[in-house]
Design brief:
Elements: H1 2-23, H2 27-42, E1 45-46, E2 68-69, E3 75-80, E4 91-102, E5 106-116, E6 121-132, E7 138-148, E8 151-158, E9 162-167, E10 170-183, E11 187-198, E12 201-213, E13 223-233, E14 236-248, E15 253-262, E16 267-275, H3 278-301
Antiparallel strand pairs: 1-2, 3-4, 4-5, 5-6, 6-7, 7-8, 8-9, 9-10, 10-11, 11-12, 12-13, 13-14, 14-15, 15-16
């Protein structure tokens, strides 16, 4: 979901830059560009289809969730759940997003996520704003509401990583510090740490995430990410480690591997191959079909 929202924000920022650049051109030319931009924006354009889940059936109803990109300021899209159940539809609710600007200076972003199964309905809403004052200085404020069982949790975040959460009759406070380091042209290191206080008890936690990109980034597709997290509560230490890599094995094929483990001895390993070459996809899809036919023939043979 976050990846989809980031791509949409980049596209909107690019449109704004094009409009600002058009203002510096002669008036006649600017009027023509504005007319062409407005006329093009008024025509709804189909958005690219979302990726299919790792395991899906032949009748996967992806067409139900196709959307149009129009001039409407409200962005409404289905949300893909990459780690869903096997043979599941692969979508987790609907996401709504919009950007407001007050007095042409104060941007306010709104996003909401709604999902529902046979028993429960989940709601998550986030409102964030940031105000610049001085060179390189800004103050941010955010409000988050999400459902937790049958109750709702309300969280208020402010600058310097401060936050307060109300859930029922429980009030908790927290502080978080994060720093990002750029290592050369390919590496990135993110270090964060914080503490949460509630009901007279304190829990501490921290994380470290290292990312290595392709030497030809953003054209190159190689990507490797290593993350380590730690949490201490009442002397009970929890450690976790996860690794994810994307290796291009061909012009149109990628091999994606994931691995995670914790100090309690549980973990998960997964491998996935995606390709835009239809012939390879068809050949891979024939493997379970041939296996099923051979198994059925053996059952008939041996009665």
């Amino acid at each position: 979901m976050k990846k989809q929202l980031k791509e949409e924000r980049k596209r909107r920022k690019m449109m704004k830059k094009m409009q600002e650049a058009a203002k510096d051109l002669p008036s006649d030319y600017g009027d023509n560009v504005e007319e062409e931009t407005s006329s093009a924006a008024s025509v709804p354009v189909p958005m690219p289809d979302l990726s299919l889940p790792a395991s899906f059936d032949s009748d996967n109803p992806t067409h139900r969730y196709r959307s149009l990109d129009s001039s409407n300021p409200w962005l409404v899209r289905a949300v893909l759940e990459p780690n869903g159940w096997d043979h599941d539809i692969g979508y987790d609710g609907v996401n709504v997003e919009r950007l407001f600007v007050f007095k042409e200076k104060i941007p306010v972003s709104f996003s909401g996520h709604i999902s529902k199964d046979k028993k429960d309905a989940n709601l998550q809403m986030e409102i964030a704003s940031s105000v610049k004052h001085g060179k390189g200085k800004a103050t941010s404020l955010g409000f988050d509401m999400q459902s937790v069982g049958k109750d709702y949790a309300y969280t208020l975040t402010a600058a310097a990583g401060l936050s307060a959460t109300v859930l029922g009759d429980v009030l908790t406070g927290g502080v978080k510090v994060e720093d990002k380091l750029i290592v050369g042209k390919r590496g990135q290191l993110v270090v964060s740490g914080g503490a949460i206080y509630g009901r007279g008890e304190v829990a501490y936690g921290g994380s470290l995430e290292a990312t290595l990109r392709d030497k030809d980034h953003p054209l190159g597709r190689f990507l490797a990410t290593l993350g380590i997290s730690v949490m201490d509560w009442h002397g009970d230490l929890a450690l976790g480690c996860n690794f994810q890599t994307q290796i291009p094995t061909g012009r149109y094929t990628n091999l994606i591997g994931r691995f995670n483990i914790n100090n309690r001895g549980s973990g998960q390993v997964s491998l996935k191959i995606n390709s835009s070459e239809q012939l390879q996809i068809v050949l891979i899809g024939l493997i379970p079909l041939v296996k099923k036919v051979l198994g059925y023939s053996q059952q008939v043979q041996y009665g």
